[in-house]
Design brief:
heterodimer, A: alpha+beta, two-stranded antiparallel sheet, 13 helices, 54% helix, 18% strand, elongated, B: alpha/beta, 6-stranded mixed sheet
Chain lengths: 377, 221
Amino acid sequence: MASQLSFTGFAWKNLWRRRLRTLLTLGGITMAIGAFVALVGFSRAFEHEWLRMYQSAGTDIAVVETSFLNTSLDESLGAKLNTLPDVAQAAPMIFNLMDLTPDVNALVYGWRADSYELDSLTLLSGRRFRDGQPEVMLGEFLADSLHKKPGDSLPIQGTTFTVTGVYHGGTALEAGAVIMPLDQLQIISSMEGKVTAFHVRLRPAPPGELQDEYVKSAEAEIEAALPGVRAVPAAQRAANNQLVELAHSVAWGTSSIALLMGILGTANTMAMSVFERTREIGILRALGWKGRHVILLILTEATALGLVGGLLGISMGWGVLRLLSTLPQTASIVSASVSPIHLLQSLLIAVASGLVAGAYPAWRGAHLSPVEALRYE
Amino acid sequence: MNNSLLEGRGLVKSYDDERIQALRGVDVKIEAAEYIAISGPSGSGKSTLLHLLGGLDEPTHGEVLFKGSPLGSAVDLDGYRSRHVGFIFQAFYLLPTLRAVENVQVAMLAANLVANHRAERAVALLEEMGLKDRMRHYPNQLSAGERQRVAIARALANDPKILLADEPTGNLDTANSAHILEILRGIQEKRGMTLVIVTHENAIATSASRHIRIRDGRIEE
């Protein structure tokens, strides 16, 4: 059986003739897509975990300052919030990211001992903390990382806290977190009398009223009652809180730079390849290849680099996420789950990168004069 | 009106803002199934004429007609090269990463033939060239004569009516030159093709049914 030559087979042979250069280019694309998968996947998973946390606690609305970055509200507003007819409970809260040891940092939440949000957690050992006491509860993952159990001490920001309980939470943001009395976190954060937000659980919607409309009317009611604050649905708050915004910005910024480097590397490879094959392109034109066939060949080569680099990058990025989700330094904010849409998006970006990188070399190859190309030494 | 298969009218080809003139007004008519040799000193313009006749390049002035239609306007150059013309070069110009049988198929990739058909045709052509045992060899594993035979098979891949050979024996020893010439003549007779050979060699020039001499970009009759 004679070997059949296909268009893609021809493209593959062209790539494989310069193995080292092809592999190095693939390495560049793999790193770029790997960074995109890991960083953007992390930031999206981070947002998703926030939403899950709100949902599991039953939070409908978050009340924050109009300027949501570094939001800081007077704790006294809670009393008025709790008098509004649609509000079942408004729980003041603070959250922060703190170094617990040189190797371990974690999200720290300040809640009141009677907050409804505590009800969504399952105590595995010990008891809840008490307001006014230097006590903390640890998520099971964090307790494991720190080797702490109820009764142990834990120094945070110069204050020694007693671990009163270890709980199970449904999200990575809870499993790797510290929860302490609101007043204690206000003291160590120098936020006395202030809170980051109020989490609001609404009363059940009146019969016949759609939940979305009910939440909207409740938002309007809160904003009317408390001028200068914003009431945002939990999903929007999950996407817009300052930590998630920061994670999205860093992820996209870093990924974009990595992708640009990957595209430039591929473009360089394809440009070199076309330059070296000038005479061969002339031969193909002499054999009747149209300019569009030459473009197709070069773009097939560039797209193949993008596709293979993309698949390798997705594997690498996924591996990095899995690793980060197990490390004590990052486990509290990283989930290993990556949505299929994100994977598809990564692959499309990889292929598109190949197409962009191959565009100019392909155009140049297609516009070579056959005679000039055949004369090329 | 009785059109020639191929006709060059007032062909001028110049370079460098017309400071260098490779062809200075060439008129030539080539009929179907003719065997023509074009000879002349180096730099006389014979390869340039072959390139214009084959649609590899366009004249600065004048026109090339294929069956009465001008190339480049009425006849698309890429399609003309793909369907009607087969090129054979002195330096063979095989693609180094492809096996002999794949080199022949490359010419058919642009012609929308199905893969099976491409492979079968490449095998048949290489067998016709006496290369049955060399099909899976790469160009650097073949002798010069074998490479030129692969190049001839490739030129025949799309079943063209015109075969244009630019110094096809220029890189071959005497025995291989004679063999290649015999193959080309055999193909021309068997298939009724038009064969135009550019050559320095008198033996080839005198074997042709018509011999065109070029000097300083003009035809010497």
